[in-house]
Design goal:
Elements: H1 2-7, H2 38-49, H3 72-76
Length: 81
């Protein structure tokens, strides 16, 4: 839930004063057109890919976040075609 709150700017950050809410419209999601419920979507994915009948452990790690970033030099060197 914390990742969802952060990524979708659902709450005011008390620990990161550098977040500029005026630029939130520049954020984008490669998969979804709008905000989603991360917990609901993760559960849907897990259920659709289950191969056995065992329940998921209560303390199981269900998802991890991944951030891909690069410096300006990398993007400037890309072919614009």
């Amino acid at each position: 839930k914390g990742i969802q709150f952060h990524n979708q700017r659902e709450r005011e950050s008390k620990t990161n004063p550098d977040i500029d809410k005026d630029k939130s419209n520049e954020n984008y999601d490669f998969i979804n057109d709008g905000n989603i419920d991360y917990n609901e979507r993760v559960k849907e994915i897990i259920e659709s890919q289950k191969t056995g009948i065992r329940k998921t452990r209560k303390d199981a790690v269900l998802v991890n976040e991944l951030l891909v970033t690069s410096g300006r030099e990398f993007f400037e060197g890309l072919d614009s075609a």
